[in-house]
Amino acid sequence: MKNKKILIINGPNLNMLGIREPEIYGKETLEDIYTKIKSKADSLGVETEFFQSNIEGEIINAIHQSMNKFDGIIMNPGAFTHYSYAIRDAISSINVPVIEIHLSNIHKREEFRHRSVTAPACVGQICGLGSNGYIYALEELCNE
Ligand code: DQA
After folding, report:
1. Which residues pair with 127 in a beta bridge?
2. Model's pTM, two decimal places?
3. Which of 99, 113, 115 for a ligand 1 pocket mutation test, highest count of atoms within 8 Å of Cβ?
4. What's the confidence (pLDDT) of residue 72?
5. Where do the H-state alpha helices sit in 15-117?
6. Helix (H), strand (E) at residue 142
7. Bridge partner residues of 126 (DSSP)
8. Going by C-beta distance under 8 Å and a sequence separation of 6 or more, which residues neighbour residue 106?
9. CA 29, CA 49: separation in Å to the nearest integer?
10. Which active-site residues does the annotation give?
11. Which tens digits make up the pLDDT trace of 21-64?
C-alpha cells in the first residue's frame, strides 16, 4: 500500500514561534515543531511536506495544489482563521480532508479570536494543546 502524504500548512507569524509571545505560544520554534511532526510521521510510516507563508494567496494556492497529491492537510491558518473567507472557500473547494490547529486556546483569549471562519470547512479543529495538536491531527488523518 502507498504511504499516506500529509501537508502541514502554517500561516502568518508562525515563522516567529520561539520569539513571538512565548508566554502564549511556548518556546518551541517552527523548526522544532517540524522535527517533532517528522519523527511521529516516520513512526507512522507517513510522508510529510511543510509549508509556511505570511501571504494569504500563497496559502490558497498551496491548498488548491494539494489535490491529487496529498491525503490530508493539517493547517494552522494563524490570524487568517478569524477573517479569511477566501481560505475557507479554498478548503471547501478541494476533496482533501483538513484539520485546523491552534497552539493556544483561542476561546480563552480576545473575543475576535473566538470565531473561526475556516473551521466549518474542516473535518475538525484542535486548539489549546500546543504543538501536540499537530501530532493528534496526524494520528487522526492516518486512521482515516
Ligand atoms: C493561532 C491563534 C490565532 O488567533 C493567532 O492569530 C495565531 C496563532 C494559534 O496557533 O494559537 O497566529 O492560530
Report:
1. 102
2. 0.97
3. 113
4. 98
5. 22-25, 30-44, 56-65, 85-93
6. helix 132-143
7. 101
8. 81, 113, 114, 116, 127, 128
9. 17
10. 25, 102
11. 999 999 999 999 999 999 999 999 999 999 999 999 999 999 99
